[in-house]
Amino acid sequence: MFIATCPLILASASPRRQQLFAALGLHCTCIPATIDETPLVGETPAAFAVRMAEAKAAEVATTQDAAACVIGADTVVTIDGRILGKPANHREALRFLELLNGKTHSVITGYALQARGHGVLLHDHATTRVRFGHFNQDTLAAYANTKEPLDKAGAYAIQGAGAFLVASIDGSCTNVIGLPVQAIVHSLLAHRFIRPGSAPLPDTA
What is the mean pLDDT of residues 194-202? Predict the structure, then answer.
């Protein structure tokens, strides 16, 4: 669908983000960054997500050719001003799910594009509002005890079995998975880091 005009580097180890790019026909080299992911005192969830995305992109960019475009992203789940990261264990996953149960929360992904050779350094964030249905504790515990919640911010995966928890969303669905695809593709096209493919359309006759 799209063709990269320069090397694309994803400053992340997330297979979900890589899959979202692959679905667009784009190959990204994945290089995870190692940074301190502790929120600052008084830092808002959106500011934290953007700062993390910028830090990831900046660290990886120092090791790459200047012609490359490095993409950093960080996704957080937040409710009542509290940031819910990845649960440490099944018990914490259940606590997160109980906190979100029957309520509306926000999923915020900060993203950054850094291309030193092109003089491009930009950042932004996308927010999606997600409303959970209401479930009893046994149901929440059954999901919390699976492997799926343990590497997901907020302890659920909308693209997996955790989809049953979600009653509605307002905003980008891919943002909840970990990458606001529409916004990032728009930025990549605007800076000509990708272009539409030129494959012929199939015959309709």
Answer: 77
Domains present along the chain, CATH in parentheses = 2-196 (3.90.950.10)
Closest CA to 136 of 160, 103, 102, 96: 102
DSSP string, 127-196: EEEEEE----HHHHHHHHTSSGGGGSGGG--TTSGGGGGEEEEES-HHHHHT--HHHHHHHHHHTTSEEE
- Reduced to 3 states, what is the DSSP secondary structure of residue 8? strand
pTM over 0.85: yes
Digit-coded pLDDT (tens) for 104-135 = 999 999 999 999 999 999 999 999 999 999 99
Active site residues: 74
